[in-house]
Write a structure and sequence with these properties.
The chain has about 325 residues and is of the alpha/beta class. The protein is built from twelve helices and twelve strands. Helix 11 links the parallel strand 9 and strand 10.
Length: about 325
């Protein structure tokens, strides 16, 4: 571009007929180059949609003011799958699987203390890679007992909100799957953690719901106080059927937005074969409601939900997921 500007300056001193002869190709080349650069900038999910914002019972894009629906993958527990937490697998998820969103699952013990704090730099590697590629990235406190030690989550989310909270890519998921705990305690926990995030970021926050993030009607009856908040819905197609979709419909009718931050095509224990019929029923419903989702899981554990058999081999589930995601993302509006 500097050379082109120099050439244009040089042409300005030439006779009129010379300038006329050179203007057309220079102008055409510059316009084409700028168009290509512009295409490269906008052709990512985040550049197109902007920040995801809770608006009534929907999530909309700050740039489009239209419903945002993104489809992608969730990484497995960080403490048991560290080798996958790097930029190479973010690239693979976007380039080969067509993902628009990835989810980092920071492994937290049931007492709400992290299994392995050495995972934290790896999670940041994934966050930064997602930002670089223009993907949405969910930072998930992957716990079944987060409410037992909220100070741990306050410290972690506060630090990451300060560091990454200005990026439209970043979404905060406060509580993966509460178990054996009522909505009142989950809400109380969320209202302790959220103000720390809000010191640094107004980005979307997702709150887990009772009974492994299935009882979304409890949250709908008494939502968390605050702005830009959505609620997690989890399902496994082999186990969860129409009754859970009915409950989710009731929650949305009551006015809360949902994000399917974790789902599986197999049974709720992560095992079993792909339930294609039930998965099709779920995605007919997800498509109709334009809900965003992340499949479980980017890992090679010997169970039905893993998308890898080894680092270099995609499992049957992986091939199934690749086709399902691409079907929903390869013609997405952000691609131009």
């Amino acid at each position: 571009m500097i050379m082109s500007a120099s050439l244009l300056a040089s042409c300005a001193t030439e006779p009129a007929e010379t300038t006329t002869a050179t203007e057309a190709p220079v102008e055409t080349t510059t316009t084409t180059t700028e168009a290509v650069m512009e295409e490269e900038v906008i052709n990512t999910p985040v550049a197109y949609h902007g920040e995801m914002i809770a608006d009534g019972n929907r999530l909309i894009g700050s740039k489009t003011n239209e419903v945002v629906r993104v489809t992608g993958m969730s990484f497995f527990w960080s403490n048991w799958s560290q080798k996958y937490y790097n930029a190479d697998y973010v690239d693979l998820m976007m380039d080969e699987f067509g993902c628009e969103v990835v989810r980092c699952s920071y492994g937290i013990q049931d007492d709400s203390v992290p299994y392995d704090r050495s995972c934290e730099p790896l999670i940041e590697d994934v966050i930064e890679a997602a930002i670089d590629r223009g993907l949405y990235v969910i930072i998930d406190w992957h716990s079944h007992g987060a409410h037992l030690a909220p100070d741990e989550a306050v410290s972690y989310f506060g630090g990451l909100a300060e560091k990454y909270g200005s990026y439209d890519n970043v979404i905060f998921e406060l509580y993966n799957e509460p178990k054996n705990v009522g909505w009142d305690k989950i809400k109380e926990y969320a209202e302790i953690v959220i103000p720390e995030i809000r010191k640094h970021s107004d980005n979307l926050i997702i709150v887990g719901t009772p009974n492994w993030s299935q009882d979304v009607t409890a949250a709908a009856s008494n939502p968390v106080v605050g702005e830009n908040i959505a609620y997690a819905l989890h399902f496994y197609a082999g186990t969860h059927k129409q009754w859970l979709r009915d409950n989710a419909d009731k929650a949305m009718e009551a006015g809360i937005p949902l994000f399917v931050t974790e789902w599986g095509s197999v049974n709720a224990d992560g095992n079993g074969s792909i339930d294609k019929e039930s998965t099709a029923e779920w995605f007919e419903w997800i498509d109709k409601n334009q809900l965003s989702s992340c499949n479980w899981a980017i890992n090679d554990k010997a169970e039905g939900s893993s998308i890898f058999v080894s680092d270099s081999n995609i499992s049957e589930t992986g091939e199934f997921m690749k086709a399902l995601i691409k079907e929903r993302t390869e013609n997405a509006p952000w691609r131009g």
